[in-house]
Specification:
alpha+beta, three-stranded antiparallel β-sheet, 12 helices, elongated
């Protein structure tokens, strides 16, 4: 561990120039006293580290010194695929590994490319989770990830809508969608998707399984997403919506709201328009459409309009009653 830390310290000085002991301690997640000891160790091993005193002081390498000790480990190389997503990297236990891999990569790049890489990092940031929603608790994500990587059969206790079940799964891959982690796994000659936060317990059996020949995780996920959307959005509602609802539709209904607005009719004198929007089954659609409040009116189909009227009447009655 200390050898890895010394290498990280050396690469930090090489990539960033002068840094204070406090800055180095923060980057390496150690104490300042440990940084002092590590600087002494680098000097004793022949690395020309200079200490500049004063308010603008700090540690730096002698001008012109560069190390070529930049070989990536296998886990560091794998972690680079998460370079744009530090949050998910931390979830998988690869935060420190990713940081070390990035340092080594920067040290290996020519100066002009390393500078460009730093500018990109300064200017672009990926925040995977959706707005206004806490991330799922995923205490078993690390264990599941290890099973995926090692192709180990996973014995899982899982909570689903109909109750709790026990399954033996062949974990094929992990997917992060909208800040939520999913496991794609084989079971009984089929492939299914499991939400990681619903695992109540997991354990590897020690048995190794063979991945299905030609299985493509990205292709599976894309097709699965299409099937899910088609299964959920089986109906169409005709709506009359206000200018404010026209802004809310994409935020509250996603791609269905976007498509509805693209086919909107001409606005009336008050700016309201008519749209046709794909909806989930009626019970869910009523709840979803109520979020638009008085900014929308359901024109059809008649049974959906009637359900909206019944719920609205019940709400009016409840709030009109005195307590």
């Amino acid at each position: 561990m200390r050898a890895d830390r010394l290498l990280s310290l050396l690469l930090l000085l090489q990539n960033r120039g002068r840094m204070t002991a406090s800055e180095l301690a923060a980057e390496l997640e150690v104490s300042v006293r440990t940084v002092y000891r590590d600087i002494e160790a680098l000097g004793a091993s022949g690395v020309p580290v200079c200490a500049d005193r004063g308010p603008a002081g700090g540690y730096r390498l002698v001008d012109g010194y560069r190390t070529r000790l930049t070989g990536l480990t296998d886990t560091e190389a794998a972690s680079l695929f998460l370079a744009g997503a530090p949050g998910p990297a931390r979830d998988l236990g690869l935060g420190a590994v990713l940081a070390a891999a990035q340092l080594k990569l920067q040290a290996a790049l020519p100066a002009e490319l390393a500078d460009r890489a730093r500018r990109i990092q300064d200017r672009f940031h990926l925040d995977a989770p959706a707005w206004f929603r806490d991330a799922d608790p995923v205490p078993y994500l690390g264990a599941v990830a290890q099973a995926v990587w090692g192709q180990r059969v996973l014995r899982a206790h899982y909570r689903r809508w109909g109750g709790e079940v026990h399954r033996e799964l062949h974990p094929l891959g992990l997917v992060l969608k909208g800040g939520i982690w999913y496991l794609v796994a084989g079971i009984d000659e089929t492939v299914r998707t499991y939400r990681i936060s619903r695992f109540l317990a997991v354990d590897t059996t020690g048995e190794v399984f063979d991945r299905p020949a030609g299985f493509d995780l990205a292709a599976y996920w894309e097709e699965s997403s299409r099937r899910l959307e088609a299964a959920l959005h089986q109906g169409v509602a005709l709506l009359r919506i206000s200018p404010r609802a026209q802004k809310l539709l994409p935020m509250q209904f996603g791609s269905a709201g976007v498509r509805a607005l693209e086919g909107a009719g001409p606005p009336d004198a008050e700016g309201w328009v008519r749209v046709e929007m794909s909806i989930e089954p009626q019970a869910v659609a009523v709840s979803d459409l109520l979020r638009l409040g008085i900014e929308a009116e359901v024109i059809g189909p008649p049974e959906l309009r009637e359900s909206m009227a019944q719920v609205a009447a019940a709400l009016a009655s409840r709030y009109a009653s005195s307590r």
